[in-house]
């Protein structure tokens, strides 16, 4: 944060605060309430700040329209054979690696307004941007990697480069991309915290927080965050 003292070792990940997830085709309940709280969190003295973005090609595997199936139906998807081969994996085991995929409305398509960060969010040029879900045949909820670990973003490398030890997350959606990113951050060895004032979920109910806690993720509110960031 240029011009202000920052707290060494702290990093903020703003997850998928994009038009389609706030007011667009896949709007998360309560997402319109987040602008103020997330901007307040952004203003705190983090040493490093990064924002992730869903950035799908048209015809992405997560879209119901791609499969001609109803919205929110669950199908089984498999890792693309070419990616498995490129990463030295065994292509004969692909059919053993199926995962359930919820089919969503088209959202955050590259080159569309829906993929843009929401107006008024203070994500400026001091932020690094991490695009995810960019491969036609791979879903990627986590800002670190896809569930098959075939495609890694450079988020972990950037966090290490900036000597981040404590990672704080806000954004959308708590039960999908925030959860997946937080769990991967904890698995990577970062002390990881999700700030509930800056999160909304597709299906709120608290289960997502229990799953994150079980994975070693801390769940805190803005008051606790300010204490940790030494802000009154």
TrEMBL record:
SUPFAM superfamilies linked to this entry: Isochorismatase-like hydrolases
Domain Isochorismatase-like intervals: 11-209
Domain of life from the UniProt record: Eukaryota
EC primary class: hydrolase
Keyword tags: Hydrolase, Metal-binding, Pyridine nucleotide biosynthesis
EC number from the UniProt entry: 3.5.1.19
GO BP: any one term: pyridine nucleotide biosynthetic process
Gene3D superfamilies on file: Isochorismatase-like (3.40.50.850)
Xref: InterPro entries: Isochorismatase-like_dom, Isochorismatase-like_sf, Isochorismatase_Nicotinamidase
MF annotations from Gene Ontology: metal ion binding; nicotinamidase activity
Pathway in which this enzyme or protein is active: Cofactor biosynthesis; nicotinate biosynthesis; nicotinate from nicotinamide: step 1/1
Keyword Ion transport carried by entry: no
Family: Belongs to the isochorismatase family.
Protein name, as recorded: nicotinamidase
Organism this protein belongs to: Pisolithus microcarpus 441
């Amino acid at each position: 944060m240029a011009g202000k003292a920052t707290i060494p070792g702290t990093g903020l990940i703003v997850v998928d605060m994009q038009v389609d997830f706030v007011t667009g085709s896949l709007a998360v309940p309560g997402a319109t309430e987040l602008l103020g709280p997330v901007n307040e969190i952004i203003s705190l003295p983090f040493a490093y700040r990064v924002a992730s973005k869903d950035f799908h090609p048209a015809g992405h595997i997560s879209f119901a329209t791609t499969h001609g199936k109803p919205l929110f139906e669950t199908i089984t998807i498999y890792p693309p054979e070419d990616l498995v081969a490129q990463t030295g994996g065994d292509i004969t085991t692909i059919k053993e690696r199926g995962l359930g995929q919820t089919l969503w409305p088209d959202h955050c398509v590259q080159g569309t307004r829906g993929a843009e960060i929401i107006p008024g969010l203070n994500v400026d040029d001091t932020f690094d941007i991490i695009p995810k879900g960019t491969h036609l045949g791979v879903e990627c909820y986590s800002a670190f990697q896809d569930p098959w670990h075939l495609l890694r973003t450079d988020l972990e490398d950037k966090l290490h480069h900036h000597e981040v030890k404590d990672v704080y997350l806000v954004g959308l959606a708590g039960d999908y991309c925030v959860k997946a990113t937080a769990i991967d951050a904890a698995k990577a060895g970062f002390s990881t915290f999700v700030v509930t004032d800056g999160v909304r979920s597709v299906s709120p109910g608290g289960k997502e927080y229990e799953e994150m806690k079980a994975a070693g993720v801390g769940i805190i509110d803005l008051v606790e965050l300010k204490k940790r960031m030494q802000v009154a």
